[in-house]
Amino acid sequence: MSNGGAASQTDFISSEVDAERYRPARSRALARGLVVIAVIVVIAVAVPAVMIRFEKADLVTETERRLEILSRGRAEVIETWLDGMTRPADRVVESELFRLFATEMDLSGGDISDLATGGEGVPEGSEVPAGLGVPLAAQLPFMEQVLSDFSRNADFLAGYLVNRDGIAYVTSAGAETIDPEQQAIAKTVFDSGRLTFGPVRASPAGLVMDFYAPILPAQSESGTGKAVGVLLLTTPVAEMLGEILAPPPLAEPGERLKLVQRSGGKTFEIAPGAAPPLRAIDDLEVTEAGRLIPFAERASIGAPGAVYSVGSAVGGPPWWVVQEIDVAAAQKKISGFVTAATIVAVLVVVTVIAAFGAFWWRLSNEHSSALAEQFRRLAARIEAQKKLLDSINNSISEYIGLKSRDGTYRYLNPAFARAIGREVEDAIGLDDAAIFGRGTADRLEASDRRALESGAPVTINEEVYLGSRLHHLQISKVPYQDETGEISGIVSVTRDVTELVEEQKKRERAIQQMVAALVRAVELRDPYLAGHSRRLAGFSVAVAQRLELGAEEIATVEIAANLSQIGKLAVAREILTKPERLSEPEIAQMQQHIDHAVAILRDIDFELPVLETITQMHERLDGGGYPAGLSGERIRLTARILGACDVFCARVAPRSYRSGISPVAALDILEQNGHRYDPAVIAALREVAGSVTGEKLIAGLAAG
Fold first, then answer.
1. In which domain, by residue range, is 296 found?
2. Given this model, what pLDDT does residue 25 score?
C-alpha cells in the first residue's frame, strides 16, 4: 500500500494543531498526560504479549497434532513389518512334524541327558514315546537339519526348540547357547501361549531381535491347547530399522525420529548404524507398554537442547516411536510475528512518549508562534512514525481488511491486495461480490452478519479461488468500533492454510490406501472373500441411496462395508477356508471376528459411526444375532443395511463348503426371514438388484 493510500484510509493523527486548545494549568496537563502515557504503554505492551501468547499456543497445538500423526504412522509401519517378519515361523509351529516332536519331548519330561546319550539308561524292552516310530534321540539330527535349513532359507541367524525348563534341545547349525534372559522369556510363553518379542540387542552380527512362538500339541486345533514347546528365532533388524527410521522427504528442519525400547527396567534408544547402536536414556519417562508417551516439551533423545516430542507405542515388543522437533525450530515459524509485534509495541510507546514530551515542551513555551511551529514538527514526526508502522503492517503475510457495515472495503493491506490480484487503491470501495464472486460473497456475508449480531469474534474456514487456484482460507472476523463505541464495520484477518489442508488430504489418502491393503490381506487369507467387501459396499451404498439417507450415513455405510471383514485377519485360516460347514465351537470362533475388528479399528477416528455399524451388522431384528443380541430399532439403520446386503452377497457367491445361488433366490430367503431383516431394506435391495447398478455388480461376481 502506498503512503498516500495509507493516509486516505486512516486518519489517526491530524497534522494541524490548534495551540489555543492546550492552555490549561501545567500541573493538570502534566498529570493527565502521565496517566495517558501509562495507559497507552500498558496497552502497547499487553496487546502484543497476548497476541504472541495465543500464536505460540496455536503453534504448540499444531505441532502436537503433526508429531502424533507422524509417530503413529511410523509405528504402524513397524507393526506391519514385525507381522511380516514373524509369518515364516508359522511354517514351523503349524507343522505337524514339529508339533509331534515337541509333544513327544514334552511327554518325555524333557530329559535332555537321555537324548544326549542316545537313549542310554532306558531299560531294555521299555518303550520310548515316539509317534514317528523312531526314538527321540535318533530324531534329533534330522530335526536339527530341518531347523537349520528353515533358518537359513528364511534368513534367520539362529533357531531353537525350547522346553519348559528353558533348555534348547534342538538348535540350528552354528547357533550360540541361549542365555538366561532368553530362557526366562521362553518360559513365560508356555504360560501365556502368545507370540512374544524379546528386546533388541547388539551382537557380532549387528542388531538382532528374538521372537518366541508357542508350539501347540500335535493334532490340536489352532489357537487351542497348552504349548508343548517354544520356537525361538533370532533375526537381524539393523538394516530394516535403519530404513524405517530414515527421515521422510517432507521432514521439517529440526525434526527427528527415534525408536525407544524398554528392557530390564531401563530405557534404550535403538539407533541402527550408530556406535553404540543401543544407548541408555535416563531422562525420558516411559509409560507402561502399549501406552502413548504424551506430548510435552522435554530434553532431546541423543541430542542437545529442548524439543517438543510425543511417542506412539508399537504393538508387540516394548517399543515406542518418538517423533521430536527442536523447540527453537518449531518456534521459528512465529519469529517474524514476534519481531513485528515487538517493534510495533516499542514504536507506539516511543511515539507516545515523544508526542507527550513535545507537547509538554510546547506548553512551557510562552511564545504562541513557536508553540505552533513545534506542534507542526511533532505532527510531521508522528506522521513519519505512522508511515513506518504502515510499512511494518504491509510486510505481514496474513490478509487484513476493514469493511464497513454496508460490506465495502475501507482498508486492505498489500498482502490482501496481492492475493486478489488488484492494487490497494483499486480494491478500496469494492465488496466481496466484486472481489470473490457472488457465491463466495453470500457465504462471507453470513459470517459477517453473525459477527455483527453477536459482537464477538467469528472464525470460519472457506474455499476460495485466487488467481485460478483453489485456496483454503481460515478467516477470523471481529466487529470494529469507532470513536463513539458504535460498531461501524468488521476487521478480518485471513490466513492461507492451503498447504496444511493439502497435507491432511495426503494423509487421508494414505489411510485409505492402508485400508485397501488390509482388505486385500483379508481376501488373500480367504479366496472366497475376494471382491466381497467391494461388492458389499456397492450394494449397501446403492440401497442407502434408494432409502434417501443423508451424505454422512451413506459415507458410513461405504466405509463400514469396506472394513466389515477386517476382523477375519485374526481368525484361523483353517476355519476361514474349511470345506465343510463349521462346528458350533468353530462358529463361535468365527463370530469373534467382530471383537477383532473392534480391536483393530477402535483407535481410528472416522468422525462417523463406522465402528458401531460394523459391530451391529450381524445383529437381527428378533434379537437372534451377535455379538450383543440387539433387536428392533436398537440396531442402527446403517447396520441393518449392511446386515441384509452382507447375507445377500454371501449367498449369491460360492463358498468353500457350498456353491452360490441366484440373486432372486437369495432375495426370497431374505423376505422369508422378514422377522430378522428390515423389510424396507429388503425391498430397496430387490429394486437395486433389478437395476443397472445391481446387474453390473452381479455381472462382476460372474466375471470373478
1. 248-330
2. 56
Q: Are 19 and 368 in contact (CB under 8 A)?
A: yes
Both 637 and 602 in a single domain?
yes
Q: Is residue 181's pLDDT more than 80?
A: yes
**pLDDT value at position 342?**
82
User: Which residue has cell 541430542?
Assistant: 303
Cβ atoms 310, 68 nearer than 8 A: yes
The reply to whether 525 and 461 lie within a common domain is no
Q: Report the alpha-carbon distance of residue 19 to residue 363 in Å, rounded.
A: 9
Q: Same domain for 521 and 660?
A: yes
**Residues 438-447: contacts with CB within 8 Å, 24+ apart?**
440/464, 444/475, 445/407, 447/475, 447/477
Which of the listed residues 299, 314, 330 is the one where a domain comes to its end? 330
Rounded Cα distance, 694 and 195, in Å: 44
633: domain CATH number?
A: 1.10.3210.10
What is the structure's pLDDT at 682?
94
Flag the least confident range among 74-83, 184-193, 433-442, 561-570.
433-442
pLDDT interval class at 7 (50, 70, 90): very low
CB 615 within 8 A of CB 595: no
d(CA 624, CA 677): 11
Q: Taking the model in full, what pTM does it have?
A: 0.45
DSSP secondary structure code for residue 221 in this structure: P
Phi then psi for residue 609, to 5 deg, are -75, 55
- pLDDT tens track for 271-320: 888 888 888 887 777 766 667 888 888 888 877 889 999 988 898 898 88
Rounded CA gap, 132 and 138, in Å? 11
Distance CA 620, CA 605 (A): 27
Asked whether residue 681 carries a pLDDT value surpassing 60, the answer given is yes
CATH assignment of the domain containing 319: 3.30.450
Amino acid at 584: E
Who contacts 590 (Cβ-Cβ below 8 Å, separation ≥6)? 571, 575, 582
- Which cell numbers in the block locate residue 17? 494543531
Is the N-terminal amide bond of 214 cis, ω within 30° of 0?
Answer: no
Angstrom distances, CA of residue 691 to CA of 557, 646, 665, 699: 20, 18, 17, 12
Nearest to 327 by CA among 311, 308, 310: 308
Alpha-helical (H) ranges within 87-168 are: 90-93, 96-107, 112-116, 136-153
**DSSP assigned state of 334:** G
Q: Classify residue 680 as exposed, middle or buried by CB count within 10 Å of its CB (0-12, 13-18, 19+).
A: middle
* pLDDT the model gives residue 223: 60
DSSP state of 642: H
Write the DSSP string, 577-592.
T-SSPPPHHHHHHHHT
Supply the pLDDT for residue 189: 92
Cα(540)–Cα(552) distance, rounded to whole angstroms?
Answer: 14
Instruction: Note whether 451 and 537 are same-domain residues.
Output: no
pLDDT band at 10 (very low <50, low <70, confident <90, very high): very low
686/670 Cα distance (integer angstroms)? 10
Per-residue pLDDT at 570 exceeds 90? no
* Grid coordinates given for 130: 515316539
Q: What is the pLDDT of residues 188-216, one digit of tens each?
A: 999 888 999 999 998 888 899 999 999 99
Per-residue pLDDT reduced to its tens digit, 22-35 = 455 566 767 777 88
Long-range pairs, 477-480, Cβ under 8 A, ≥24: 477/447, 477/448, 477/451, 478/451, 479/451, 479/452, 479/455, 480/402
Of 330, 348, 381, the domain-final residue:
330
